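Support reply, case 0932

Customer input (verbatim):
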Amino acid sequence: MINNPEIGTHYDEESVLEVEDLTVTFAMGSPWRRKVLVPVNHVSFSLKKDEALGLVGESGSGKSSIAKALTRIYTPTSGEMYFHGTNVAFIRGSELRKYRQKVQMVFQDPYSALNPLKTVHQQVQRPLRLIGNTQYSVDSLLEAVGLSRDLQYKLPHELSGGQRQRVVIARAMALNPEIIVADEPISMLDVSIRASILSLMNDLRRRYHVGYLYITHDLASARFFSDRIMVMYGGHLVEIARSAELIRRPFHPYTQLLLAATPSKRQQKSALPQTGYSTPNLWSTAKGCPFAPRCLYVRGECTINRPPWTWVSSTHGVACFANELFRQPGSQM
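Our regenerated output:
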């Protein structure tokens, strides 16, 4: 169990993956004028067995950088990632290969995720051969993701976008993973088939006991698919709660902004709750709350110090200085 001074001890001992103070940085510019970009800034969370955990935020908030750090496409700059109690943040070689078998990724673009010169059969069969998996066959995996066996000898360009994404999911499932990191898996698909892909992923979760980190900018789909939702802005985690609770009582001003911008039966008629449209400052020299330049409730300390993490309840946490409002039942900032 993680004992982080900001996040606290709110992690279940049955967590499969626990992340503590994860930081990812990139050096920019020349050696003489080096600047450091911080897309992931001291982020902590946990993922339980069979759980679907949503990660929501606008483009540039650091969601994909977290995904690539968890799958070790990126090596974290600092922090710890515990998979079944073993720190995998900096492992290499055979240990890293074994970890990657258990934590697979489904990318946003199904067009570029597949080799255009290989058939569906070849692309799904390859991971089975690499690990000698006799539990599944190409036919059984295609059937599990709702594809006909007749498609296995087709090339990717002969498939629709939805079919390609199902092939990508089947390839990930071939390694019998415990966690799938799904980086906006429906954002490039037709609206008519998005719900079917989410339903498929949910079905696989129940049948094969796989957990998900579901990354999206869409609160509506996160609520539909996720058990809990984390909200991220400017490289920082700003709020986390159970899905229904977060939608019903969003405390952080940025979460309220995302919810106000979500299409619904009651269309938004008033101005969105923000003061501007500036992008977050991700440089290492940035101070204070990253949302301060856009926040309606900004105060002096917001521009100087990073907001403390406050647990409104045992399952609902928020990083904001206006924590006196969180204790008022039914209050909204």
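We compared this against your earlier run and they match. Two observations from our side: The two ends are 32 Å apart (CA to CA). Residues 1-11, 328-333 have pLDDT under 50 and may be disordered. Please reopen the case if you see a mismatch on your end.
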